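Quick one, tokens below. Sequence please?
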């Protein structure tokens, strides 16, 4: 039972297709001697400023107690000696002997954050699965991807990491295996891990082709007919061929795979991208400019940390200015970083009327 202390006459309960608002007190038409009602994932209550949400695994049954500080009572386990409302039917086996484990979550929230609280309530019952995280493992080793300030100190980029109440999240073996096996080497042990590994390869190589064409590094006709005759001549044709091939080739198999012809064409395409794009002097020549741009952005926010967005002020307080600035810049898209650089360092032109 969770006392809320909230001054409100209604509450919210997650249902099958919606979140419904219900009165805290039942009307005169309510005939059931019990005041329990059903919820699918969570029950929540808020007043004009604050709210509290309770999510749980269990019987998905709750009761609001308006005469007890608007407390939310959630049924986690039930022992009953009899069932039926037209007679006495003893149920001695329903006493739940032994040890039982229950799980529930309490989420305090502000009124304006009610949508985020509802999302958290749904996520509580969402099982973790192998996901595409290997290219964002957090702290990078050996200085790779680090940003250097003027003092020579390095700050590793961390594009994604798990944090729960200040402690590392206890990931399942399947998830950790999917992360470790995401990029290369032994395939992931789960089908989910194998799917995201191959899906990322398909997405990255095709988006890199489009970026290289837009940047003038390559032209569509540079991709050989040996590749295009198998995979297709356009971005959409290649994506369609690669995805549908994985579905067909994996059907009835114990692993996610490609057909030999498509797999060979994709490997040839990778070799072409490495020789013509990833190591191309035209593309590599822009790296220095990008590094200078990021370094100047870092220096600017390092000297003016109050300009960081609100989300990064908490990181600034907990881990320091350098860490907050690094995380902010690491999350920028290329166009956003270029726009910020232009706004901060490129003089604006005058318009004469």
């Amino acid at each position: 039972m969770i006392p809320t202390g909230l001054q409100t006459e209604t509450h919210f309960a997650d249902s099958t297709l919606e979140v419904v608002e219900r009165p805290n007190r039942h009307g005169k038409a309510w005939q059931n001697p019990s005041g329990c009602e059903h919820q699918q994932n969570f029950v929540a209550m808020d007043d004009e400023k604050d709210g509290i949400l309770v999510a749980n695994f269990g019987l998905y049954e709750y009761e609001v107690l308006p005469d007890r500080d608007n407390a939310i009572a959630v049924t986690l386990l039930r022992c009953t000696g009899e069932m039926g409302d037209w007679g006495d039917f003893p149920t001695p086996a329903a006493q739940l002997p032994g040890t039982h484990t229950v799980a529930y979550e309490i989420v305090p929230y502000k009124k304006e954050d009610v949508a985020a609280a509802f999302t958290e309530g749904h996520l509580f019952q969402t099982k973790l699965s192998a996901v595409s995280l290997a290219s964002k493992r957090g702290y990078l080793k050996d200085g790779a991807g680090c940003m250097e300030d003027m003092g020579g100190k390095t700050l590793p980029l961390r594009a994604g990491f798990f944090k729960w109440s200040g402690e590392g999240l206890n990931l399942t073996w399947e998830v950790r295996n999917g992360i470790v096996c995401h990029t290369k080497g032994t395939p992931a042990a789960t089908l989910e891990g194998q799917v995201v590994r191959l899906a990322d390869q398909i997405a990255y190589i095709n988006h890199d082709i489009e970026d290289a064409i837009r940047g003038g590094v390559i032209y569509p006709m540079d991709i050989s007919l040996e590749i295009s005759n198998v995979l297709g001549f356009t971005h959409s044709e290649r994506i369609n061929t690669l995805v549908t091939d994985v579905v067909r080739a994996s059907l009835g198999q114990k692993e996610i795979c490609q057909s030999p012809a498509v797999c060979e064409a994709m490997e040839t395409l990778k070799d072409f991208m490495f020789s013509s794009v990833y190591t191309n002097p035209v593309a590599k020549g822009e790296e220095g400019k990008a590094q200078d741009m990021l370094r100047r952005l870092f220096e600017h926010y390092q000297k003016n940390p109050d300009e960081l967005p609100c989300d990064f002020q908490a990181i600034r307080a907990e881990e320091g200015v350098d860490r907050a600035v690094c995380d902010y810049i690491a999350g920028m898209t290329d166009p956003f970083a270029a726009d910020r650089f232009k706004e901060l360092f490129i003089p604006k032109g005058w318009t004469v009327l």
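Residues 191-214 form the longest helix (24 residues). Confidence is low (pLDDT under 50) at residues 132-166.
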